[in-house]
Amino acid sequence: MSRTSTEERPRVDVVGTRADGRAALYEATFRSLQAEPKELPAVWLYDERGSRLYEEITRLPAYYLPRRESEVLRARAQEIARRTKATTLAELGAGSANNTRVLLDALGAAGALERFVPLDVSGKTLQASAETIAAAYPRIAVQAIVGDFEHDLGLLPRGGRRLIAFLGSTIGNLYPDQRARLLGALADELSPGDSLLIGIDLVKDSARLEEAYNDPGGVTEAFVRNALTAANRELEATFDQRQFAYVARWDPANEWMDIGFHARETHTVSVRQLGLELEFEEAEPLRVEISSKFRRERFEREVARAGLAVASWWTDRAGDFAVALVLPTSTRSRTRFHRPREQSAARS
Ligand code: AVJ
Prior knowledge:
The chain has 348 residues and is of the alpha/beta class. The chain is 37% helix and 25% strand. The protein contains 11 helices and 14 strands. It has helices at 21-33, 48-57, 65-84, 100-110, 123-136, 176-189, 206-212, 219-235, 296-305, 333-337, 341-347; strands at residues 12-16, 38-39, 88-92, 115-120, 141-146, 162-166, 195-201, 244-251, 256-263, 267-271, 276-280, 285-292, 308-315, 321-328. The strands form 3 sheets. Strands 1-5-4-3-6-7-14-13 form an 8-stranded mixed beta sheet, sandwiched between helices. A 4-stranded mixed beta sheet has the order 2-12-9-8. The longest helix has 20 residues, at 65-84. It is globular and about 60 Å long. The relative contact order is 0.15. The site of N,N,N-trimethyl-histidine has 13 residues, from α8 and β12.
């Protein structure tokens, strides 16, 4: 890429990779692998190969999520631009930032946008998408952050009106307690004038959900198996692909897709970097991710509990997927929530 001599700084700027990021990941992995059921955290899915395989998933006919989200964003982008007047668009778990372009177009046309801040755990994917975006939108600065949205929200630049996008139903990968923590952290991070845009997959017919995670060509299986490959490489683990059968099924009680493996027979896996010897029983599950599906009421309640409010809820025509515009509340109800009952009754 050539630059003109008048340009004073690179328009793509990558920061992040906290020194303790790795330690936190190893620690979480150490804990999860000994939990019941055993689990390999979903971040292991997103190395360079995993990010590429996920791109392939987004093109699968049965994997409706990105297309539905794009339908909603295209219908609402101008309204989002008008209502948020964002000067900074940040994106958590940006990946290739495909659906984000709809927002960049609308915010750019509205004239206030100055900066795009994608945050992702995969440095290589992030660098590539930051450069693509910078080339396509020459008038905005791109400031990429290599990081994990559960730990690195503090790295987001401050000032102006910020729109923080969390698209693709990535929020579905979090357990309810992690989700509450993230929404709470976002509530702490948002100033008046800032806003949040969250993409949410909705509860629907279980057959369709299971088809979305069991494509006949095995792309999704290859994507999930790549987490074992990544753990073998980075953690000196001995997961044997032949010993694990891929399973992705709907859990109606928790309303999430449960995605991972069953051990084909009793065997042991060692994870050298973590000092672990894991005993697997025959048919024992190894979870790699959950993909939670939502209902409007529950989502609104969770958001309210964090001291935020759903200002708009938009779905595609089929009602498969929702995008919620979430705003900070002026009266921080999150702190009020924990106050004794008498006090709030006395005020009304
Ligand atoms: C990127 C987390 C939204 O849960 O649907 C796709 C990941 N896993 N197929 C999802 C995924 C298997 C995806 N998210």
